[in-house]
Structures are given as structure tokens and as C-alpha cells.
Amino acid sequence: MGPDRTEPAQAVTRSEVLGSCQKLGEARQSLAAHVFTYEQLTAEPERGMRG
Q1: Residue 40 in contact with residue 48, Cβ under 8 Å?
Q2: Domain limits of the chain?
Q3: Residue 30: pLDDT above 60?
Q4: Counting C-beta atoms within 10 Å of the first and last residue's C-beta, which end of the chain has fewer, N or C?
């Protein structure tokens, strides 16, 4: 069984996770993404992997 978690430790963890999620969201919005669907990948795998 793991260590007992206290409310302050949970608050710190929650804050760290929220900060990481916010940074991830910012990165996703600012970077150009290469997006393709499963159907596109299975229909034309070479094209999907080469971009």
C-alpha cells in the first residue's frame, strides 16, 4: 500500500498537473500539426507517414 496522501500534497500535485496541461494546450495551439485519420493512414500508409 502506498504512502498516506495529505491534502497539501494533493493540492501541490493538482497544481503541477494543471500547469502541465495548460502548457500542453498552449503548445498545441501554437504549433502546426500534422493531422491524419486512421482511415487515411490505412488507405495510403506511405502518404500518411511521409506527410
Answers
A1: yes
A2: 7-50
A3: yes
A4: N
Burial string for 6-28 (b: 16+ CB within 10 Å, else e) reads eeeeeeeeeeeeeeeeeeeeeee
Cell of 30: 501554437
> Contact at 8 Å (CB) between 48 and 41?
yes
Where do the H-state alpha helices sit in 1-51? 7-30, 38-43, 45-50
Provide the mean pLDDT of the chain. 84
Q: Is 30 left (phi over 0), alpha (psi -120 to 50) or beta?
A: alpha
